[in-house]
Amino acid sequence: MFRTFLTSLILSCAAQAAVTLPALLTDHMVVQRGIPVHIWGKALPGEDVKVSFHGDTKSVKANGIGSWGVHLAPADAGGPFEVTIKGTNEIVLKDVLVGDVWVASGQSNMEFRLNQAANGPAEIAAAKYPKIRRIKVEHRVSEFPLDDVSAKPWVELTPETAPQVSAVAYFFVRNLFEGKGSAAQGVPQGIIDSSWGGTPVEAWTSYRALSSDPAFLPAFNDWAIAMESYPTVKARYDVNLAAWTEALEAAKKSGAKVPAKPALPGTVPGGSWEPAGLYNAMIAPLVPFGIKGALWYQGESNAAASRAPVYGREFQAMIRDWRKAWGEGDFPFLFVQLANYKANPFWPDIREAQRQTLSLANTGMAVTIDVGNPTDIHPTNKQDVGLRLALAARAMVYGEKIEYSGPTLRMAARDGAAMRLWMDHAAGLNAKGGGAVRGFEIAGSNKQFVPAEARIDGGTVVVSAAGVADPAFVRYAWSDNPDCNLYNAEGLPASPFRSFE
């Protein structure tokens, strides 16, 4: 009896002493090239841990709460390699590649899967890229920063694993990997997909950043109001759930279409709209993992009267927040401007906030005003979205001498009875399809905008309207689903804009 107890005690202690790794560190992972490789985990307090990778070995002693970490020498792109971690037990991570790692985050258009994209079956069948790897962070909310995510291990991109990959992220890294003459050509690419549909920017931002600006206080106020109304929301949900259960049983018996199950909104305790809740659970645990940069597709959930006016400040605060957390400087942050869609009057404001975010260093924007779907908030053309993000990366990050953006407003000035607009990325300005340039409006000092005529004059656009003798302001593509056609020679669309703050 005592011997059995002693054996159990020894096995229990051995199990507690076993070195463990976070969910991000698995077979098939991609680690970031050119920077120290961080390997970390848990062990028994004071336990000696030795880590070896790519010819470098480091030893460390777990601290008083059992945490440990080492930084190994940077490596060039390549592999596969092995990572060996030895404590009282030994872990060997196999088929590890060194390349570029991108965090892909945001809401449903980033989470949108390859099997939902246009030409999905053919794209999936062609997804044979053993040097492109992906890990999906599972949905989770926390009131405080966590030290690990919930995620299945890294996988290679194959026709078997590709259906569930983020379509935007996949087309982005595929364009980098295949880009002829690019510094990224043939370089292993890693995607950390940490996204959640229908979520606002403040959920992806830390408490530290949200508390840095009084303008962000409405996010906390909205959450407090939501918590007060939770009992009513929950009671309504319970009624809907009971009705759904009955309808489900009836559908099973009759063979009718199964109804969609009702879902609790994100504005409930532990819901996905909690300020900082997704940052704490789905971003903070990623910070120890070295990355090349971030991809972002979000903004739809902030297109509301109480949220749109501060979106620009919140979005920029979030970018600074992430960069501060990773401690890698101003790493590339590439984002998607909202596409055309008959949504609500606040979509133009979100697009303008996104355009103004380009004032932050090392940011790039994919304009998608021409590849949306007026009747579907989830357009299936993710190929062009990924391509345009990749063009920005190839130029900004990898130094290629290519055009990567459509025309963007540099400045606007009065020119007689017209407004003259100077544009960047404006080589070969043209009205796509021929005919008149469409999408411009002009106003006097009263900001009462009217449709305007526009003509291209070299690298500028001259805008006027017969009824506006003293123009002061101009805007372009300023509606949820605008009719606009200004492009440059590379076939990239101009960003919507307005000439005033």
Short description:
With 501 residues, the chain is α/β, with parallel strands linked by helices.
Features:
501 residues, alpha/beta, eleven-stranded mixed β-sheet, disordered N terminus
Beta-strand content: 15-25%
Kindly name the structural category.
alpha/beta
Helicity level, as a percent range? 25-40%
Strand tally: 23
Verbal overview:
By secondary structure, the chain is an alpha/beta fold. Among the domains are: 216-274, no CATH class; 408-498, no CATH class. The chain contains 11 helices and 23 strands. It has helices at 2-17, 108-111, 120-125, 167-178, 207-210, 217-228, 230-254, 277-283, 311-326, 347-356, 383-396, and strands at 30-32, 37-42, 48-53, 56-61, 67-72, 78-86, 90-106, 129-136, 155-157, 189-195, 293-297, 333-336, 363-366, 408-415, 418-424, 430-431, 440-443, 450-451, 453-457, 460-464, 473-476, 486-487, 497-498. The strands form 5 sheets. Strands 1, 3, 4, 6, 7, 8, 9, 10, 11, 12 and 13 form an 11-stranded mixed sheet that branches. A 4-stranded antiparallel sheet has the order 14-15-20-19, with no helix packed on it. β17 and β18 (450-451) form a beta hairpin. α9 crosses α10 (347-356). The longest helix is centred in the middle third of the chain and has 25 residues, at 230-254. The radius of gyration is 26 Å and the shape is globular. Mean pLDDT is 95; it is low at 1-15.
